[in-house]
Structures are given as structure tokens and as C-alpha cells.
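Proteins fold reproducibly. Look at a concrete instance:
___
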Amino acid sequence: MAARAATLPHSRHRGTPVVGTVTRGTTNPNRLRRMDRWIAATHGAELRRAGDPVAVDLGYGAAPWTAVELLTRLRAAAPRARVVGIEIEPERVAAARPYEREGLAFRHGGFEIPVPGNPVLVRAANVLRQYDEAEVAAVWERLCARLAPAGGGSRGGLLVEGTCDEIGRRHVWVALGPEGPRTVTFATRLGSLDRPSDLAERLPKALIHRNVPGEPVHAFLRDFDRAWAAAAPYASYGARQRWIRAVRDLTADWPVTDSPARWRQGEVTVAWEALAPVR
């Protein structure tokens, strides 16, 4: 199914129809810190080597905080990075304009990504949660087609799409390259977690309705809970040590793609193929 299209007044992209629908626009300062830090750590090299390291904050919401913070965090890893915040609601763009500065701009648009060339990063947080599951594949395909292509030693641009709670304690996202989905990352403030399956409510739209018996993501969260329970003796050393031990046990049966350096941050990343929905 194709992505829904809405032509809104005052499009700033040469009259091209704006693709998408207006979201609720909920946002809070520091909400996307876990995603931002992961992006800077794992994609910083691509941003540094890019000739024009443009990152897009797609659907930043009713206030521009997440775009402002993304620029700060990316520049710690790639000093030449630029951020363009894109919103489908013209009033939100107008409200964000006073925050523009060197390296930060705001544009009216949607999934068509109204920026010249191909961005090295597109971040779409808490956007597709408001769409139907059947629409996700078409949106992913459209956004991946806008990414910087692979070649010359580069893996190409990155699309990071996911969902978090209102204050950013729990977050799950999918990372996609020009070729499609690559990984799924689960990230949390460990002190807020009773068990890893608590993250199920923050699964992105492509997976949230698949957390049922017979689906890989359900099996993964079941095994994660079992590993967490088995690691209970490590709780005396703190939640971080318990998480690290549980993830280490998971690696026996699941293709975990990251290392203890990321596990220590309350993260674990798994190959998309292992969690992809059963068709």
C-alpha cells in the first residue's frame, strides 16, 4: 500500500505534494538522547567522511528541541554535520524558525524529504507509530531511496525509525540503509526496567503487532526475559551488570551485532533478519 499523501498549503518544495499526515507532535527536551547517542557512536564515521554530512530530523513535532539536540550530539562526532528539521505542519515550521542557526534549518515537508541531494542520516522518531502497519514498508522504501548511496567504502546513508516513551527512558528502533532494514536496537534506562519485555510497548510499528506467539520478536523477548531471570544473581552488582550478563547469554541463540561497550549503555542490537515479521 502506498503512503498516504496530503497536499498542504504553502509547500516550500517547489509545489511538490507533501507526503504524509500530520502527527500529534508530542515532544520533550532530551527525549531522543538514547537514539542520538547510538547514532553518533555507530554512524559518526559515515558523517565525518561525507562531503556534505546532512542529517534530517523528520517529524520533529510541535517544538524544535529534538532537532537542536541532534545537531549538538552529531557535531560531537562529526563537526561538519548539518541538521534539517522537517515538519508537515506549516505552523510548526514557522514556530521553529527562530531557532535556526549555522548548521540548523527547518523546512516544510514530509516523506518526500525536501532537501537537495541525499542525506547521510534520516531520523524518524515517533512518526510511523501513528500509521497503519500495512503502510510501513512503502514509507521505508521511500525514505531509503532518499539516502546517500553506498559506494567507495561507504555503506551509505542511514534511516533510524522507532518509538520511545514520553521522557525517553525506553526506546526501540530499526536502522535501515539504502538496501533496507539492517538491525533492531532496544535501549533503556536500566533502573526503570522490571524485565526486558517491558520494552515491547515501545516496539516500532513494523513489530508492535507481531509480539505474539509464532513471531520472532515475541520469541526474542521471551528468551531475553529468561536470560534476565537467570542473571538475577548479578543484580547485587547493579542493573548494568545484570543486563550485560543477560545479553551475553542471548548471543548463544540470537545474532547480537554490538559489543559490551554498547550493552553498558543499556542497549542491545540484533540483526533485522532474526526479528523480521513472519510473512
In short: Residues 1-14 have pLDDT under 50 and may be disordered. The domain at 33-190+268-272 is CATH 3.40.50.150 (Rossmann fold). Strands lie at 54-58, 82-87, 104-108, 121-125, 158-164, 170-177, 180-188, 267-271. The chain is about 30% helix and 20% strand.
